[in-house]
Amino acid sequence: MVWIPVFLKRQGVFMTKKKFPSIAFNSGDFVVYPAHGVGKVADISKQQIAGTELELIVVNFDKDKMTLRIPMAKVEKVGLRKISEASTMSDAVNVLKGKARIKKIMWSRRAQEYENKINSGNPIAIAEVVRDLYRSENLAEQSYSERQIYEQALNRLASEYAVCNKVSQEEAETALLSVLSAR
After folding, report:
1. What is the residue-wise DSSP string for 42-68?
2. Which residue, 8, 13, 29, 166, is most buried by CB atoms nearer than 10 A?
């Protein structure tokens, strides 16, 4: 829930009113946390923390062996969202079919832009990173940092693609790589 200011005309004072997030999550739902990728809602519970009762969403990331507890009031701020629709995933796959767009700026600045796109959690932006950093077998080698960013982006995109299309992570990566190699 989010607190929004409300002005009361009669009393001439400001008050705050609770507003619940527009997205409803249920236990067992797959969600995307932009900074960590796809996770599964394990529980929605209330806990006493520092004398305040908070409603928390507990998200498990099995691959990283990590659990996050996100207060309901912070859900929109941190960007927690449900898995993308099939049409959005289709748009992301279409981005992979396009030609790589590599800017002529320093690698450190490009790397920062790529990291920002990955951490946005937007599958289309992540697909742009995968498309731009993909190297086929017969092209030149990638630097270590390029390879790391490419693998992180491919992993994030494949994990959401897998949940969206109800396939395994490996099948999702294979499908995405086949789209990349066909261009």
Report:
1. EEEEEEEETTEEEEEEEEEETTTTEEE
2. 29
* Pure H helices in the chain: 75-78, 86-97, 107-120, 123-133, 144-165, 169-181
State which of 57, 82, 107 marks the end of a domain.
82
Q: Which two tokens stand for residue 120?
A: 């946005």
What is the span of the domain harbouring residue 18?
2-82
pLDDT along the chain (183 residues), means of 10: 47 47 80 94 89 91 90 90 94 94 89 95 96 78 90 96 95 95 84
**Boundary residue ending a domain (67, 82, 97):** 82
Q: What is the DSSP letter of 11?
A: T
Q: What is the pTM of this model?
A: 0.82
Phi-psi region of 23 (alpha: psi -120 to 50; beta: other; left: phi over 0): beta
By C-alpha distance, which of 121, 129, 175 is closest to 153? Answer: 129
Return the sign of the alpha-carbon dihedral for residues 17, 22, 26, 32. Answer: negative
> CB of 92 within 8 A of CB of 162?
no
